[in-house]
Design goal:
- This protein has about 110 residues and is α+β, with helices and mostly antiparallel strands.
- It contains three helices and two strands.
């Protein structure tokens, strides 16, 4: 495929090929509607139900969030800055990027 990009090899030494790579480091375009919908589904079933609510005022209309920062906060948690728990053992990297895509769709980045 012409729009595929190669990522570094995984732990087995196999090259990872990803279509639609995003400049943020995401393995796909964060404005992809299907990815946003998948992120919303994950958010509604976990993040909204547990902490953020279904109308997450923390993200609606928000500006200036960095995609990589949001990804890392979901993956490793808020550390001592927020009570956000780490989700890196629950969600795959692709699912975390889908969550980032959804959060991004709520704001004005």
């Amino acid at each position: 495929m012409a729009d595929e990009k190669r990522k570094p090899a995984d732990q087995t030494g196999t090259a990872i090929v990803v279509a639609e790579a995003d400049a943020s480091g995401a393995p796909f375009d964060l404005s992809n509607e299907a990815r946003i919908a998948a992120g919303k589904e994950l958010f509604d079933s976990s993040c909204a139900a547990m902490c953020h609510g279904f109308e997450p005022v923390l993200f609606i209309g928000r500006t200036g969030l960095d995609e990589q920062y949001v990804y890392e906060t979901i993956r490793v948690g808020g550390k001592s800055m927020t009570p956000m728990p780490p989700w890196g053992d629950v969600f795959t990297p692709e699912e975390i990027w889908e969550l980032v895509a959804y959060v991004k769709s709520l704001g004005e980045w």
